[in-house]
Amino acid sequence: MIRIIYIIDTSSLIALNRHNPRDVYPGVWQEMGTLIDSKRLFAPREVFEESSRLDDSLAEWTKTQMKMFIEPTLKQIEIVKEILRKYPSIIKLDKRYAADPWVIALAIEMIKSPQKALVEVKRIVVTEEKLRGERIRIPFICQEYMVDAIDIIEMFRMEGWKF
Hints:
- With 163 residues, the chain is of the alpha/beta class.
- Helix content is 48%, strand content 14%.
- It has 8 helices and 5 strands; from the N terminus they run βααβααβααβαβα.
- Helix 7 (138-144) links the parallel strand 4 (120-126) and strand 5.
- Helix 5 (74-86) crosses helix 6.
- The mean pLDDT is 90.
């Protein structure tokens, strides 16, 4: 049996909120909460910072889901530094958003951490960014580090959700 853990990017939370508003699709958000409660959905603190800047229901929701947000560790800081050395354009200096390398670093750290469970654990990054040639985006860097990256709808499919 394989236990899947998702590390979600701000882009997927924004897309989820835009296309599945909480007041119209409460079941989607309940399932997201179940993933969080079962310690299968995480995001770095930087995703919280990005999403809480928005003045909408997503910002309200993220503030009620603090247990999904992981504080940076020394290992993550090292990984982010390595990512930025190799791929400095992952962060756009003219943008205020900078969670992308942290999403990848959290996934890498979780993959490399030793497991004491009897169940195999697979970590997958969830992002709406797409792999497009050599463009330096989350899926490209994930591919370079052998980390799977999917979008939110693929996560729904993997979980067997139907709404």
